[in-house]
Amino acid sequence: MENEPNAQRRWEQECSFAAIDFETATRQRSSACALGVVVVDSGQIVNEQYWLIQPPNNEYDRFNTSVHGLSATDTKHAPSFDEVWEQAVCLVGNHVLVAHNASFDISVLRNSAAFHSYTPPEASFLCTLRLARSRLPDLGSWRLPDVCEALEVAGLNHHDALSDARAAAKVLLAMCNLENSGVTEVCENLGYRFGELSTSYYVSFFNAIQRSSKLSKSSSSSPRVSEIGPNVDNVDSDGALFGKLVAFTGTLDSMTRDTAFQVTVNSGGKPSNSVTQKTEILVLGMTDYTKVGTDGMSNKLRKAVALRTKGAAIEIIDENDFLRMADSSAFA
Which residues make Cβ contacts (< 8 Å) with residue 136, sequence separation at least 6? Predict the structure, then answer.
């Protein structure tokens, strides 16, 4: 028993990082409108801060406002991204950056910086969504609320940037506790390498084992679907949708179904009109209750749930998470 507190102290001492979360005003990754930062030192939250950011031309899409509740009125007098990130850097220091779905948040950082001709300092980063997918493979959905529930992380106010950053920090601490290991060791145990953001290069956070297997099974050409246009060149093979079979159900609020199919292909995924044993992601749109039963479940959702009970690895996500997973160039 004497060694348990000491072991706990050791992993806590190796848990120092800065969790971040961006919200965006439009589909464009350069449209950051809010930022939350939570700093953890030796396993304890020691500082946190929230900023509103004025997006380019202070423009908002209705869908984004419906997700996080922010509008042009809120950011009318807010500072621009480059001003905010300069302040955030002072808080973050040399800490590793942590985000839930880091491909989105780091993309917002990079694209917003490019829009303002601003060069952010070099940083390493990791993704709690990918760690959770590897550590908790039976969850089925690794959205932040679902991971928080699985790890008994309370107090999430989803899509509030500070609350999301705080939850991501607590999720990582919970996984470190499960592994009785520090941040670096948790990543190494699951086969992950830190992502790197530099003035001269960018390396995504990825699982080397999974990536090698995925690439060996993939053809050298990008996946294509006959009924929609060709996808963009040089699709990131480490992208969240790369090689994934994606189906949709319900009415999407931010785009047509055809556009969603094209975004999927542009992100390296493979859209499908049906749910099968091979489906890997089902995106939920708005349900028309005149067409479904009293339980509000469409035929596709009902089938996906049934397949999951039989062991199928189908991840069920909402429209906003689909947009966050899509590549930043997918809407070009």
Answer: 142, 147, 150, 151
Going 118 to 76 to 320 to 19, the CA torsion angle's sign is positive
What is the per-residue DSSP string for 277-327? TT--EEEE-B--TTTS-TT---HHHHHHHHHHHTT---EEEEHHHHHHHS-
Would you give the distance in Å from CA 253 to the centre of its chain?
20
Looking up tokens 């107090």 gives 155
Q: How far apart are CA 43 and CA 10, in angstroms?
A: 10
Q: What share of the chain is helix, strand, coil (3-state, %, to 5)?
A: 40, 20, 40
Q: Which of 293, 109, 123, 288 is nearest to 195 (CA)?
A: 123
137-160 tens-digit pLDDT: 888 788 999 999 999 999 999 999
Tell me the pTM. Answer: 0.78
Helix (H) or strand (E) holding 4: helix 3-13
CA-based diameter of the chain, in Å? 64
Q: Which helix (H) or strand (E) holds 255?
A: none
Q: What are 75-105's pLDDT values in tens digits?
A: 999 999 999 999 999 999 999 999 999 989 9
